[in-house]
Amino acid sequence: MSSLRPTFLRAAAVALLCGGCAVGPSYHSPVADVPQNWGAGAPAGAASTALWWHGFNDPELTSLAERALKGNLDVQIAESRLRQARAARRVAAGGFWPAITASGSAQRGATSGGASANTFQAGLDAIWELDLFGGVRRSVESAEASSEAAKAGLDDVRVSLVAEVAFDYVQARSFQEQIAIARENLSSQRHTADIVHQRLKVGFSSALDAANADAQAATTAATLSPLDTALRQAIHALSVLIGRPPDELLGELSQPGVLPPAPPAIPVGLPSDLVRRRPDIHAAEAQLHAATAQVGVAVSDFFPKFPLTAAVGYQGSLMRTLFATGNRTWSVGPGVTWPILQGGSTLANVRLQQALRDQSYLTYRKTVLVALQEVEDSLVALGNEQDHGKALAEAVIQNRRAVDLAKHLYSEGQADFLSVLDAQRLLYTSQIALAQSRQAESADAIALYKALGGGWEDSRG
Fold first, then answer.
1. Angle at the Cα of 432 (from 252 to 376), degrees rounded to 5?
2. What is the pTM of this model?
């Protein structure tokens, strides 16, 4: 085997001299087409999105987010994909090194004359394909880029996860607030109905007024069951998000809590910052890199391959003398294979990989555009919902005054009972609308943080 060493060393020297040769296109990061500034109304200042849920100042929300990042099954799936991609990179890198195979056999045979004999064999075979045209290097480059895409995919799962936890938590607290509003209005409406029935007994009210009062109370009572259903479903969703059975958080979250308000201002930075921050954009670019390298792998199939092979073996009729010097055989030498006619399949594969690269580039551009749209949409929605909420808050104040006035005038006989019913109905409607607006405002803030790509920076394990 000592005679094999110089040949392998000479081949290694050739491979090093050709190390810079890798056919196919070299990857260059695409230039994202983004505007210089956001639309009108974007808060100034650099975006700060790491652990953004702390800005809602709700310990329960913070606890749920932390538990989800540790226990969520989608995160664990994404982590396994990252391990898979890193292992695939190591598999591709194995092509740089010689492959050595050991073999052995023992056979007993007979000649036509009836004589029998034993044959024992043992040996080592080695093959090393010199990567002169960079096919292996392009494969490793593609695998490394795929690993980066998997890493960015894990970060993107974390971004979506924390946002979904916050969405469901805000919904749960909003449903609890709406249930409290419904019960408060139901109590008031039932009290009003009792007064009407008392007035009916002494002839001061009509049976129609009593029926209308009962109907309004019953209508409000009918809203409680759907709200409770929605509340329980939101809690079930949160339980699954933290990787637990659906009823895990029922005891913890069944007690009413305060809806966490949105932070007063959320700086969003510049559009160019978004490209560097959002993990889905990172993943799309890494996938483009991987696809570009695969073009080089396909192009390398046009060129000859230079395998260097070596073998050493022993063959004899007796096991005890198998490794004697006289039983040894060896061979070493370079080879060349060059596909001349493949029915056009090599060229077709290059065009296939080029088409996949073009698709990846278009996917990257689309990912950037969608990211920009999500930020712009969230900014518009958040700003308008804040104005909407202010108007609804004023409506609640005025409707509450209208209920008090209607009751007072009805008790003095200066207004009919229909005025009381209308005032109570409008008050309940505006209170529910305000609660829903507060939920929508918090949800819009969460959507903005998600659109900015926040939530993965300080959450990696």
1. 85
2. 0.85
